[in-house]
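fwd from M.: "can u put these together and see what the complex looks like"

so here's what she sent:
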Amino acid sequence: MSWFRKLIPSRIRIEGRSKRNVPEGLWTKCPVCSALLYQAEVERNYDVCPKCAHHRRQPARRRLDHFLDREPRIEIGAALQPVDVLAFEGSKKYREQIAEKQQQTGESDALVAIRGRLKGVELVAAAFEYEFCGGSMGSVVGERFVRAADTAVHHRIPLLCFVSSGGARMQEGLFALMQMAKTSAALTRLRQHGLPYVSVLSDPTTGGVSASLAMLGDLNIAEPNALIGFTGPRVIEQTIKEKLPEGFQRSEFLLEHGAVDIIMDRREMRDRIASLLAMLTRQPAP
Amino acid sequence: MNRNLLDFEKPIAELEDKIEELRRVEAEPGLDIEEEVARLERKSRELTRSTFSKLSAWQIAQLARHPERPYTLDYLQRVFTDFEELHGDRSYADDPAVVGGLCRLEGRAVVVVGHQKGRSTKEKLDRRFGMPGPEGYRKALRLMRLGARFGLPVLTFIDTPGAYPGVGAEERGQSEAIARNLFEMATLATPIVCTVIGEGGSGGALAIGVGDRVMMLQYSTYSVISPEGCASILWRVPERAPEAAEAMAITSERLKQLALIDRVIEEPIGGAHRDADACARELKRVLLEELRALDAVDMTRMLESRYRRLMTMGRYRE
């Protein structure tokens, strides 16, 4: 403790310390640079820290809301609801887990898909909700993604997906694994119709989602410093019994190894992706 | 004598040892033990049947990983002729955890691709316990494309704990390699028949598992994560793997019920490792039958139903 702090009466010192426990929701601390930030300001800034540019995980709906034009917005597959087909019971019943996550996030499952416009250009955009069971892919996520792809094909417009997911949803067993094949197959339809698919990889993108729809973009765009890989770093460390190097499986590492096209700041995505899509669809600059 | 015995195989093995012993004694004159041998053989058959009629999911998982279970190369030897192994992904390396090549099935040229585990300790390490890196998946895709280019059906054999979890595999794009296979196999213009012959471990298995027909040997498993991995996540202890195996529905019987696979191929009593020749004969019969059925379908319709098959995967309410 500094000589100056010792001079302060103890009562005030304690107050000073408790002040760090900021009221939930109003203020927030950047987990990287520790800057104390006004929550609303961070949200306005696309959930990117205005001080150090750390990209936070972003709720799916807010992400799409920031990304798309105000009008029109037509949600795809909103009525789909997950079922507990295996009557799966871990530390908690899967059925109860679903109900809890639905209540917490306000989403029915871990993917939201919307047909809308980006700077006037029609497209289908989907986003993973990481807070819903770690953004894991089960039957509903797979089916919604397929319907998003089908909608894009039907209207002859591009598809874009913001990915943030731990992988396949264990509680749905092999049904979850098969969503990898299902979503990948759906993307062949876009290919056949010459429609672009853009995959935006954000923190984290691992497992079965990484090894399917996430890596199949005509463009794979990563957010800065996102964890992206097939096997999670913890499992690799256990296997090779070594500490992994700093930055392993981060966006910059993937760019260096040729797995992604671009690392892009979230705040620039509206402009830059609109421009890229316009070029891929041979349209004039937006 | 068989040294690799699972717990539930031991009582059966003991009976068999006893029969073996009696047979040796028989060689001595004046001893008639025919009847005793017959009685023990009956008992052994009954015990095998009763043990194997009520196997738990975990016991089946152990059978699927049995150290003496036939691997892809064992079936290649028994089911096919004229096998020429083809190596390499043409860009980085040859992955020994995946084998493949050209061969004949009852005279007809086909492409075979499969995971390959090792038998000896050295071979196990060389083949990384059947866990492929991106090179393995890219080799597999290269060979499957070769098949399509020359109008040859593709037969895949799945037997892996999963894709290899290593630094190099990640650096060279494990995710992309698996994803690419899923994407390409969905539209590859040649019949594809996939058979899980042992462990169907997660994305590493699925990466050669997209086809017109997906089958499983009776005592193989197919799962989204290993029972141990699932138990570690759920309860933080891998020891609860038996419960996880039950919960995830990983056996051929359950997966057939759930319509996630098309067909179960029966194994000899006691499992494939008890009689690899018999198992190979049945596998061959079924493969020929499936290929013949696919021959009758024209390519456009085949690809359409392959696609539809994938699209029906999933359960949800609406």
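replying to her w this: Residues 230 and 236 of chain B are 9 Å apart (CA to CA).
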